[in-house]
Amino acid sequence: MVCIAAFIILALIGIFVAGISIFKPKVGKAYLKAMKKAWGCLWKKVRLQKCETGFKEDVKNTLLSRVIIKHPQWAKPLSILIEVLSVVIVIVAIWAILTAIKSLLAIWALGSCNVTKPSACSLGAEVCSIDESEPSNIFEATGRWFTEWGEIFEAIPDKFRSYDAEDYDFNYVSVNSGVGADKPLAVDIFDPGCSVCMISYRNQKAAGFFDEYDVHLVPFAIQDADNSYKFKNSEIIVRYMLAAEQIRSGLAVSIIDHIFTEKNSEGISYQNKFNEDYTHEQAVAKLEQWIREDGIDDDGIAEIRKIVEYPETTTKMTENRNIIENELRVKGIPTMLYDGKKHTGLWKSE
Description:
By secondary structure, the protein is an alpha+beta fold. 59% of the residues lie in helices and 7% in strands.
């Protein structure tokens, strides 16, 4: 293990030695000599051959030479310590390499280098992430590490498949209100509280995406591992959207239009008001205000309230969540299905 650890350390300091050797060529020559020996030993280890004992002893003697002269009794314990540290260095190096490979595979297959908590990965797409709970102990963390590998390998085949939006039985809201069935179908999964979803929605409207495709909006309230909601009023908005659509087609789109594209009299976006300021009661009052403004009377509002509380509405939300998290393996939204592909992250006009 000593020669392998030495190779790892020499490889790490190589870039610094390269700079120093410009001014002190002897340092560079000594480094190359040591590196050549370390590589030769490592190569033999890979081929399951025995390393030259000379190199291992050279490393130990170099590290212990000054100590042994003054404190010869420390030679044996320090030699053991070097062996132990060598094992630790090798284990850490292997773990780091495997983690780097896992992160690269995850960002390719799932769109985020962090499988459990996509929001912690700055290299991923711009999304509102669907996070899992953090491990509470070393055993859970170890199990999660292997589970993440399984999720990655399960997701890899998805990169080579096509996605037909019609294959997924979502409970949705139609942007075109039944008009434009001859257009290609697109499914747009979003959370009313997600700022990235809001920007994507605006981009799509500005670029004419909703005119080009028959868009089915799937309102989805992201839930954390403890089943609380990522954005405090998203659940009630989703419920009112699904309920309002049953009363009159187009009402739900009107609701999300208010939230994503409008501001109040103080110039604050309604999405921000729902996320930060409105209580549950205030959120309901604002939603019902918009519905009334769209021509729904008190009887219609009463009917919507009933549908909001129906178990069937909860079932619809659960069905959407199952498709999104388990069938599509979505780690962040907005996520869209169109033109046979799955697109995750901020939608930008080409």
